[in-house]
Amino acid sequence: MLGAGPTQPTRVEVELENSSYIEGRGVRHTHWDVQVNDAWVPIDELRGIPQVEADPELWLAPDVDQRRVIPPGCQYRITYVPRLPLGTKVRKRVSKPREDARHDSSAATLKAALGGASLPRKLPLAVKITEYRVTGVNALEPLPELEGKPPKKR
Q1: How many domains does one find in the chain?
Q2: Which helix (H) or strand (E) holds 34?
């Protein structure tokens, strides 16, 4: 067809990284879900998705894929590279210790607040969930934030 521009691909590659980093007095976890029909499916449960797992034995060098290197403070990092249809919704979930919990680090204060009970094993978490729409190769457009709790995973 004359005058027609290049056609847009119907599926594009995006990089979604599940990871865990030591941060302050806790750990920041990042996980991705993909919307499949009406369900949110964790990216690591989808079959046949290419992935790059970071290796603690690798050092950053010009010939090494940066996705294979574990940066300082990182416990694990797996980059998934699915080919998704344009318009697919993906969701990023980041959990980390709450800021207000970090500032009060006194064991005596915590024990008093708990009425003398034993100290909690983990600090309370702050969770931020952001939804995106796939708009191109490694291009995600953030969607407006939803009020209330997100739907449960399948």
Answers
A1: 1
A2: strand 26-36
SS3 assignment, position 67? helix
Q: Is 107 helix (H, G, I), strand (E, B) or coil?
A: helix
Bridge partners of 141, per DSSP, are 133
For residue 40, tell me if it sits in a domain: yes
* Alpha-helix runs per DSSP H in 56-149: 99-103, 107-113
Query: Does pLDDT of 147 surpass 90?
Result: no
Q: Is residue 1 part of a domain?
A: no
Q: Is the pTM of this model over 0.90?
A: no
- Write out the residue range of the structural domain in which residue 69 sits: 11-142
Residue pair 89/99 in contact by the 8 Å Cβ criterion: no
Q: Using one digit for the tens of pLDDT, what is the confidence trace for 30-79?
A: 999 999 999 999 999 999 999 999 988 887 677 888 889 888 899 999 99
Residues 6 or more apart whose CB falls under 8 angstroms from that of 96 comprise 23, 26, 27, 28, 29, 125, 126
Is residue 115 domain-resident? yes
